[in-house]
Design a protein that fits this description.
about 300 residues, single chain, alpha/beta
């Protein structure tokens, strides 16, 4: 039997890409779900209590956490690294505010378990990202503000453990997430939704920044949601990477996207090598996840096809 059956489950950021995937999985577990969002968008049915609250304010966090059995904190500021570098306060300040307020309110509410969603951005540039290396290094300059903001949330959970021996929490660090309900906004989308939107809108040409050699670890949103459930169900309290564990070059990604377009779309790929490519390699180690009996299941081609069909 699921540990979530008839349990009160709070999901912050529940109308985001991973939040929607997690909520749908939780509905199958017969959980009593409350989703907190700043959006007016509600993609769920009457079984989901979808409320609008600004989690930068501590009292709002106290209200939504009260009486919850499980708290999944997914809320985040989504956007491209380029926008984050140009508007760092818009990323850093809200993230620190709602992380600090929500996690303190969650801690005081004493649920059975808390999950905090960190980020690949906490890592320093390296060929492989190992969980225990984070605090030996600094985040990449390309993720400086967002990376430090996410690190502060991790540190806050660790502080409760040191002071109060509190270990009913999980920390997950997802790789580069993509999937349905991603942000396809022209000015502020990540690499996968940006490429999909531009490929579908283009008549015959797709211009891509860099030379295509940068390597990334891409993970489908439903796999991340399943990783969250696995971490909480098994009470995994050490930080856990959720990724494919294998690298895909941007060139390979673009080729998969173009291959997955409707047959009538004929696109020529052009590379703008005058533009930056970001960090050279970003691949998650999945050794710890495998040790805890978790592996992602959705391959890139399947995930891209599903995302394009949805969009």
């Amino acid at each position: 039997m699921s540990i979530f059956k008839n349990q009160k489950v709070l999901i912050t950021g529940g109308t985001g890409m991973v939040g929607i995937a997690l909520t749908k999985l939780m509905l199958k577990e017969d959980a009593k779900i409350t989703v907190v969002t700043l959006d007016d968008f509600n993609p769920f049915d009457e079984r989901v209590n979808c409320i609008k609250k600004d989690l930068r304010h501590f009292q709002n966090c106290v209200e939504v956490c009260k009486g919850q059995d499980y708290i999944f904190h997914l809320a985040g500021i989504k956007g491209s690294p380029a926008v984050a570098l140009k508007q760092p306060a818009s990323f850093f300040v809200p993230t620190v505010l709602f992380n600090t307020s929500l996690l303190q309110a969650a801690y005081e509410a004493k649920p059975k378990h808390i999950l905090y969603t960190s980020s690949v951005g906490v890592y320093s540039p390296a060929d492989i990202f190992y969980e225990d290396d984070v605090w030996k290094t600094f985040p990449s300059e390309n993720d400086r503000f967002a990376g430090w903001a996410k690190r502060m949330g991790e540190l806050q959970m660790e502080a409760y453990k040191v002071e109060d021996n509190f270990d009913d929490f999980s920390i997950i660090r997802p790789a580069n997430i993509y999937g349905p309900y991603d942000n396809f906004d022209k000015k502020n989308s990540m690499v996968v939704p940006s490429l999909i939107r531009r490929a579908l809108e283009s008549e015959n040409e797709l211009v891509v920044w860099g030379d295509g050699s940068s390597v990334r670890d891409f993970v489908y949103c439903e796999d991340v949601a399943k990783g969250m459930i696995h971490a909480v169900t098994n009470k995994i309290s050490e930080p856990l990477n959720i990724g494919s564990g294998s690298g895909i070059t941007i060139k390979e990604l673009v080729e998969v996207i173009v291959k997955s377009l409707p047959k009538e779309k004929k696109i020529e790929i052009k590379w703008d090598t005058s533009k930056p490519s970001g960090d050279k390699v970003r691949i998650m180690s999945t050794d710890r996840a495998i040790k805890h009996n978790f592996k992602t299941l959705i391959g890139l081609e399947e995930g891209i096809k599903t995302t394009i069909d949805w969009y």
